[in-house]
Target: Aromatic amino acid aminotransferase apoenzyme
Amino acid sequence: MFEHLNEQPKDKILALMQAFKDDPREDKIDLGVGVYKNAEGVTPIMRAVKQAERQWWEQETTKAYTGLAGDPAFSDAMIGLVLGDAVARDQVAAVATPGGTGAVRQAFDLIRMANPSARVFVSDPTWPNHLSILKHMAIETVMYRYFDAESGGVDFAGMMEDLGQMRAGDVVLLHGCCHNPTGANLTGPEWQAVIDLVNAKGVVPMIDIAYQGFGDGLEADAAATRMVASGCPEVLIAASCSKNFGIYRERTGLLMAVAQERGLHAVTQGNLAYLNRQNYSFPPDHGARMVSLVLTDDALRVDWQAELEDVRNGMLALREQLSSELRRLSGSDRYGFIAQHRGMFSRLGLSPEIVERLRAEHGIYMVGDSRINIAGLNRDTVPKLAQAIIEVGA
Ligand code: PMP
Model:
C-alpha cells in the first residue's frame, strides 16, 4: 500500500535550517526558523521553568494519566493569562493540546464537526502550517488581503473588503498579536471594526495567539483577544506556550472555546475532550505542569515575567537598531516599519531573488518571503544585515 503514497512537499523553513547548518561560512546569520535565541544564539530554558522543574521532580508522585482535557489547573492558569477577566470562567471550555499546533488542529476539527460547510478565512500571508493543516483536512480556505508590501503595514481596507465576502457560519482566523510572518498588526479601532463585521455577518472568529508577551507586553498582547472574547457570541482561541515559556519541545498549548450562551459550555467541553480522545487521548502533561506551576507561584511568576520582558525588550532594541541603521545607510525611512512591527518576525518585502542573493553572497538566511526572525540577530550582526540589504540594492 505504501507505493500509493505521494512525496510530500518539503517544509521550506526546515529545509532552510538544514542549508544553514551545511553552510561552512563562519559569519553566516540564521534568521529563518521561529525560535527565540539570545545574543549568544542560544534558546535558553527560562529560569522560572527550570526552577519549577526542580520543584516538580521532588513533588511528583505518579505519572498516571491526567484527564482528557489535561490538568484543570493548567486550563485555569492559561485562561487567566490569555483572557484575564474578559469573560467568566464558566463561559470557557478548554483542553490542553500538544503545542499551539495541536490547538489549531483541534479547533479546525471542532469547526468541521459543528459546521462541515464552514469556510475558514485566513490572512494573506499567514503561518504556512495554517494552510497546510486546512488543506490536509479538506476545509475550504479563503485568503483575505492583509499585508501591504509598500508600507510594511496592514492593508486594512483590502482586508475589510475581502472579509465582506464572509457568510454566516464561516470562520475567520486572526493572529491575536505579533502576526506571523509579517509582524504587522491591527490597531485597537481596527480590531473593533473586525468584531462589528464578524458579528453583523454571524461569523465565528478564531484567534491564534502564539507570542503573548513578545510584542507590547503580556497584557497589551492579550488585549485584542480579550476584546474579541467579550465582544462576540462565540470564539475559538488557540494558545501556544512554546515561545513565551520557551518550552518548544514539551508541546504545550490550550484550545479555548468561549460562548456567551452558558448552556453551550457542557456540550462544547465534551466535544473538545472527545476530540482529544480521538486524536491522541491524553495531552502531554510536563510542559503544562510547568506553566501552571510558574503562573500560580508568585515568586516564579514574577521571575518569569521579568525574563520575558528582557526577551521582549531585547527584540525591540534590535528592531530599533536595524531600522535606524537602514535609515542611515539608505537615507530614507523605507524600512521604518521594522521598528513598528511587533513580535519575533518582520516581513521585509524583498523579492525571492534578493533573498537568494543575501543567502548566496552574504550567508544571510531568511525565509523565501523575506520574513526575518529578529531574535536571530544581535547587536553585532545588525549592521552586517543592514549593509547587505543595501548592497543587494533592496
Ligand atoms: N501559531 C503560530 C502563528 C505560530 O507561529 C506557531 C509556532 N510557529 C504556532 C501557532 C504553534 O506553535 P507550537 O505548536 O510550537 O506551540
